[in-house]
């Protein structure tokens, strides 16, 4: 809740109302990051769990597509919110600060690597689909295949989610700090 309030203030909005907690795109951004991680976890456990989860119902091809969709969705939500609030409607109190665009850096490293892992498909039970020792460069942190195994898809979903949300918050915080300093001067 604190991040949400700071985020709204960084965007130049007034103090958010409780109702905006259910309609604000910022909530969807953080929610999609959590959903991606949970989808990855349950996709990893399709063959190991007796529980009837959404990825198990979808099967491997559908579950991997759903993981990819939950990793791509935050970028789409962020881009459409910028376009809608800043270009089309010129919102008086935008919900997302310009500094949040920093999160688009994950489009260059984390997103392609995650989608590659999903594209490689179902993992055999004894080894990952990428060779051990592979280190994938990230914007904030690197992904190490040895540390990710045996929870393979959750590692890539979580890696993207962490990098995306960290950059989102760092960008919003930097903008807030800049706005606060400019008001003082």
Outline the structure in words.
- The chain has 185 residues and is mainly alpha-helical.
- Helices cover 60% and strands 2% of the residues.
- It is built from six helices and two strands.
- Strand 1 (135-136) and strand 2 (143-144) form a beta hairpin.
- Helix 2 (25-44) runs antiparallel to helix 3 and helix 4 (110-119) packs antiparallel against helix 6 (152-184).
- The protein is elongated.
Entry summary:
The chain has 6 helices and 2 strands, in the order ααααββαα. It is mostly helical.
How many beta strands in the DSSP annotation? 2
Order of helices and strands: HHHHEEHH
Helix share of residues? 55-70%
Number of distinct helices: 6
Chain-averaged pLDDT:
76
Kindly, what is the distance between the CA atoms of the first and last residues, rounded to a whole number of angstroms?
29 Å
User: How can the largest sheet be summarized?
Assistant: 2 strands, antiparallel
Q: Which regions have little confidence, pLDDT < 50, spanning 5+ residues?
A: none
Judged by helices, strands and strand pairing, the structural class is mainly alpha
Shape: elongated
Strand order in space, largest sheet: 1-2
Strand content: under 5%
CA gyration radius, whole angstroms: 18 Å
Write the layout of secondary structure elements.
Blueprint lengths: L1 H9 L14 H20 L9 H35 L21 H10 L15 E2 L6 E2 H4 L3 H33 L1
Helix pairs in contact: 1-6, 2-3, 2-6, 3-4, 3-6, 4-6
Characteristics:
single chain; 185 residues; mainly alpha; two-stranded antiparallel sheet; elongated
């Amino acid at each position: 809740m604190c991040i949400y309030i700071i985020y709204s203030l960084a965007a130049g909005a007034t103090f958010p109302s409780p109702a905006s907690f259910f309609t604000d795109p910022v909530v969807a951004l953080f929610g999609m990051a959590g959903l991606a991680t949970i989808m990855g976890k349950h996709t990893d456990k399709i063959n190991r769990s007796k529980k009837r989860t959404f990825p198990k119902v979808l099967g491997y091809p559908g579950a991997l597509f759903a993981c990819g969709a939950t990793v791509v969705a935050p970028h789409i939500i962020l881009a459409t919110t910028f376009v809608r609030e800043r270009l089309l409607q010129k919102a008086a109190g935008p919900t997302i600060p310009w500094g949040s665009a920093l999160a688009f850096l994950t489009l260059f490293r984390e997103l392609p690597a995650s989608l590659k892992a999903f594209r490689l498909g179902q993992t055999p039970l004894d080894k990952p689909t990428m060779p051990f020792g592979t280190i994938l460069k990230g914007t904030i942190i690197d992904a190490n295949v040895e540390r990710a195994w045996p929870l393979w898809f959750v590692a890539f979903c979580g890696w993207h989610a962490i990098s995306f949300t960290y950059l989102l918050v760092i960008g919003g915080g930097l903008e807030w700090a800049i706005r606060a300093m400019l008001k003082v001067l």
